[in-house]
Write a structure and sequence with these properties.
Layout: H1 2-28, H2 35-44, H3 47-78, H4 83-101, H5 112-115, H6 117-135
Length: about 140
């Protein structure tokens, strides 16, 4: 029964990230890319690579990634499930809620890599934060007997 509470908290955390992240993405998506950004990418890797990089680093990372990392760190720290199971529940719940909030993301036509920037940033941020949280020393280990 102890794991049921941890599962519920993990799923609720994923839904929280989707709802709050959709609000934050409205602000980060409005940040315009400087002209020099695309000029540099056009001369080296192509302007599409610049667009995907901008989407991941400037739009998705501050809009969803940082929030997801903070929430995952706290949830992994204070629940009884293994860190990787908690991270999978958070990621699954967030993606499920995001698809309900933004049904247009289910459409796989058009800029395929650009549409998956959200998933890539979410998986990386939640996984790294969960791993760090699970291996972070507990407060009890620093207390002397």
């Amino acid at each position: 029964m102890k794991h049921m509470g941890s599962t519920t908290v993990s799923v609720a955390a994923g839904i929280l990230i989707a709802v709050a992240g959709s609000w934050l993405l409205g602000y980060t998506a409005a940040i315009p890319a400087p002209n020099g950004w695309f000029q540099w990418f056009s001369s080296t890797l192509g302007s599409y690579a610049g667009l995907v990089t901008w989407e991941m680093l400037v739009v998705q990372f501050p809009g969803v990634g940082l929030l997801a990392a903070l929430v995952a760190f706290l949830v992994v720290r204070y629940t009884s499930l293994p860190w990787w199971q908690t991270c999978l529940l958070i990621i699954g719940a967030e993606l499920g809620a995001a698809f309900l909030l933004w049904p247009q993301t289910i459409n796989l036509s058009g800029l395929l890599l650009l549409q998956h920037a959200h998933e890539v940033v979410l998986i990386i941020c939640v996984s790294i934060a969960g791993y760090i949280s699970a291996h972070w020393p507990s407060q009890n280990s620093h207390q002397e007997s």
